[in-house]
Amino acid sequence: MAEILEYNEQELIKEQGYDDHFHDHHHGDKFKSGFIGHYIFSMDHKIIAKQFLITGMIWAIIGAAMSIIFRMQLGFPEESMTWIKPLLGKWIVVENGVGTLAPEFYYALVTMHGTILVFFVLTAGLSGTFSNLLIPLQLGARDMASPFMNMLSYWFFFLAGIVMFFSLFLSTGPFSGGWTAYPPLSALPQASQGSGSGMTLWLLSLTLFVVSVLLGGINYITTVLNLRTKGMNLWRMPLTIWAFFVTAILGLLSFPVLVSGFLMLMCDRGLGTSFFLSEIFVNGEALPNVGGSPILYQHLFWFLGHPEVYIIILPAMGLVSEVLSVHARKPIFGYKAMVYSILAIGFLSFIVWAHHMFMSGVNPFISNFFVVFTLIIAVPSAVKVFNWITTLYGGNIRLNSPMLFAIGFVSMFISGGLTGIFLGNSAIDIQMHDTYFVVAHFHIVMGVAAFFGMFAGIYHWFPKMYGRFMNETLGKIHFWGTLIGAYAVFWPMHYIGMAGVPRRYYSFNTFDAFNDFAAMNKFITIAAIVVFAIQILFVINFFYSIWYGKKMKTKNPWQATTLEWTTDIHPGHGNWEGNIPTVHRWAYDYGKDGHDFIPQFVPPQEGETDVH
Amino acid sequence: MTALIILLILVLLVVIVIQISKVSELSGKIRGEEVAEQQANNRTAVWMVVFMVLFLIASVVSAIYYKDLMLGYGPLGAASLHGVQLDSVFNVTLFFTGIVFVVTQFLLFWYAYKYRKQKGRKALFFSHDNTLEYVWTGIPALVMTFLVVKGLVVWNEVMADVGPDEDVIEIEATGYQFAWDIRYPGPDGLLGERDYTLIKQGINPLGQNWEDEKNHDDFIADQIYLPVNKKVRVRITAKDVLHNFYLPHFRVKMDAVPGIPAYFVFTPTVTTEEFRTRLKDNINWQDLSDPEDPESPAKWEAFDYELACAELCGIGHYSMKKIVKVVSQEEYDAWLEQQKSYYLSQVRGKEYDPNLGKLLKVEIAQQKRDFFKELDAAMSSTEEEDISLRLKNINFETGSANLTKNSRYELDNLVAGLTKYKDVEIEIAGYTDNQGDPSSNLELSKNRSNAVLNYLTERGISASRLTAVGYGEANPTESNDTPEGRKMNRRIEFKILKNKSI
After folding, report:
1. Interface predicted TM-score (ipTM)
2. In which element (H, E) is residue A478 found?
3. In chain B, where are the structural domains located?
């Protein structure tokens, strides 16, 4: 058994810590006084993190439930759906007692599922939650650089959610042209009823959402650059912070481009401009618009859209790196290589967007560059995977829920990442583009993997958020069910995709070539329902544990080195009662010199070498 | 009621699960937390290995089980020249990623098991190793370089447009909500101009410009017919929103964008019949094509290539199907023969035809083809009798023997025919209907056949081969009681005098 280094945390922080005269200014937290100030319009980053998390969870349930409904259509097209008519109303068309899902609403569900999961759950719910929670706590800051902007960030997200939620109840239905909202379909209400008011609200909602991301992102960047505690230089930051930092930069650079695309789309829809419209004959009428290019929108969209997948996966990578290291009781392997990989992935993510557009009618010569840059991303990604695996090598691994999800993340990231090598090669993409192979690829690599990273983070930092632990048994059921279930859902989709079956098909029986997979589609649907049920178990565990979970008795239950575990079990606004701890080492001194772990605030020991 | 029962069952299940988890926690406390934790850790570690083994077996076994459905394996291998290359890039990628997949998944779960927390174990302090990191940066970089080069060589070959002199069939696919229109260029081999503002449903579905001669022979086919082993360039476009021209069996896919035509060039190498033969012995294609109908052919017999849409285009996106037939050159030619120009069959002569009153190139060419078809048949006939052929496209000004301007094309055909068959002698016969004075009709018919004779001799046909006769009202081919019949009776024929051939 590695010995635990003897130190007195209280004394050390008192002696070494930085005195910013916290109490002299505030005399406690003035925002803590009222219920509304504390829980609703809170400026405390920890409360805002919880707000992001719980809002994200609600959206995740809505988005996942939608996928169950459209999976029912795909897996059991013959079954009557009358039972869900009370919920969906006119979108279930009943004929001779057999209820079928209207194709309009099938496409609306697919579109909403994508939009909600990508933006509301995996961007806001994941990065919003953990950037807020961990950036100040792990850097030794009292709060974000601008707590007010941070609060606005959440409330703009909330507003975006309200608008999107409202659009679900429109008589013409929510937007139904796919989460990428390609014009002309998204620009012309004549072409699809979802492109009417549903699309107007979709654009409004996502514009509000971008405001939220930008307010949050600029805050994260400022906080990381300016509010690190004494001694916390960039090379001592935990990988979580590196990941959130690069994520915020990606968001700040790419989301405005998306909004510019949205703005042009709004003009095309409402003001008669022709940015994206040209030579269109729709609904018996030739439109006057000429000279626009639908492909221009795709460039603008994917200039965000591609970095967006890294905005989703980088925070998960950061969380996983941290969790793997803490529970393997080992330093993360190749810390610097990990940081450079994050930076390389972040940079490359800006010059690969057109790999979504190999078959969109762009000049095939252009694709050469995008193939090269896209496949280069495999190199830093491979480095990260090898480093995670090596982090496990020689460890003393606690296989608890956070660690299991972190390992599951790596497994998913490998499986989904490798199929990216197929799709990134334009020659293979000719056949695979827009088939179920793509659905399998991105769901595993940025859907399931990001969720695994998020779950690892939630199980790991739940004690920090609520002062209690989540239930381990339920956590393990959750893990095994999700790991096996998610593979059961998405693995067969590779085969369906290789057979050439296109995605976004309401029904497969028009085509002989696509109609042979009924059994597999049934299997996938059943697996999806099981996985969904298991997530409900997680939600129950989450809320049950907030009030009834096992209480946290010590400040640092995981024996981790980072600063968030030096705060009180229930830290107030401002995080540390007295001095802010100062930092003397990197975040990964696990197992060094025979000590199980050495926290970041412990100064170099006598005779200690190689202090990072 | 059922809903209530289901709800109750769900609530009960939740309660049960929570109770189980509580019990497991309590029993842990009884055994001592550390011991319980250690046991749980060991158990989970074993499950990790079990999962890893089952997962790897399942992934390999399922891949083998479904290999007939997968790219390049079994009967669904590409049916086009370039498709085979794409399949090979796929397989090379599968080889490398397959190795990485198995090795990394194995190590991940194996390490989780092997280095599980155990009493007395000390974690290794192993924070970096430059050699290792160079190796596993370098190897992926090398493999990626190989895959990129291989992929791009194929890509640039596949996506290259046709050269200016290449022998290629160009067809055009236009997607719209929710079907495809396939346009063939007709005998001239050229697709005519389009303008979306000219589109009128039922009259001009593609907005073809009828003043462009290239359009006059274009036809819209209800299926895509292609001759095997012949290069095809598909011009891909859309009328309303984005669509995608997707031929899964040929590995062809390209977005159809309104206003920005794209293309895809490919060469089908397997005819529909040959593809059916491929499927014939495969177990997956033995069922009835229509499970409800025991008389229906087996799936492999009913197989057809299909065109689908692969870009979300609205509520009917999943139903944009067109059958594709790949056939031998002879079958293709025969099919072409049956196709009718959209313009000539639907527009020509209607009030919205902008070319009313003009004789079009395509019609002249058609006249020539028809003329020679008849002439060649007559010449190769073994009959000993003289054969009379009608000159269908010759007209005279009313009541006179002056040839109209457009008649010269048919006369030129006759000149060409007489040049081709140098030994033939003919009799040019003029006829009239029964209106008016019979003797003046006789005179007129005589003059008219002479006019034809004069035209021919002016074009260098020896007068010794020609005789001009006027028959007036004699030998009507139709009844003279109707205007149509009378029109048919006013005619010029030429008789091939077989027995007088030089």
Report:
1. 0.94
2. helix A472-498
3. 16-117+132-159, 169-347, 361-500
pLDDT along chain A (612 residues), means of 10: 68 78 56 70 92 97 96 92 89 89 95 97 95 96 93 96 96 94 95 94 97 96 95 95 97 95 96 95 93 95 94 96 96 95 95 94 93 94 96 94 97 96 95 96 96 97 95 94 97 94 94 91 96 94 93 92 93 87 93 89 84 77
The whole-angstrom distance between A369's CA and the closest CA on chain B is 10
Tell me the two tokens of residue B186.
Answer: 């007709």
The full set of domains in chain A, from first to last, is: 41-278+287-594 (1.20.210.10)
Contacts of A188 in chain B (CB under 8 A): 240-241
Tokens 């570690």 locate to: B45
- Measure in Å the smallest separation between the Cα of A556 and chain B Cα atoms: 17
Q: Which residue among B63, B127, B132 sits closest to A335, beta carbon to beta carbon?
A: B127
Q: Which of B315, B319, B322, B323 best probes binding to A when mutated, by most A CB atoms within 10 angstroms? A: B315
pLDDT at B1: 66
Q: Which residue from A563, A254, A334 is spatially nearest to B136, judged by alpha carbons?
A: A334
Distance from CA of B51 to the nearest CA of A (A): 9
Q: Which two tokens stand for residue B298?
A: 């087996």
In this structure, whether the domain defined by B361-500 belongs to CATH 3.30.1330.60 is answered with: yes
Establish whether domains B169-347 and B361-500 are of one fold: no
Gap between the terminal Cα atoms of chain B = 102
A575 sits in the region (left: phi over 0; alpha: psi -120 to 50; else beta) called left
Are B44 and A290 a contacting pair at CB < 8 A?
A: no
Question: pLDDT, tens digit, for every residue of B304-362?
Answer: 999 999 999 999 999 999 999 999 999 999 999 999 999 999 998 888 899 888 888 88
Q: Do B252 and A404 touch (CB under 8 A)?
A: no
Q: Does the beta carbon of A546 lie under 8 angstroms from any beta carbon of chain B?
A: no
Residues in chain A closer than 8 A to B253 (CB atoms): 359, 430-431, 433-434
Nearest CA in chain B to A179: B312
SS3 A34: coil
Say whether B259 and A278 touch across the interface (CB within 8 A): yes
At position B476, the amino acid (one-letter code) is: P
CATH superfamily of B169-347: Cupredoxins -  blue copper proteins (2.60.40.420)
Q: Backbone phi, then psi, for A249, in 5-degree steps?
A: -65, -45
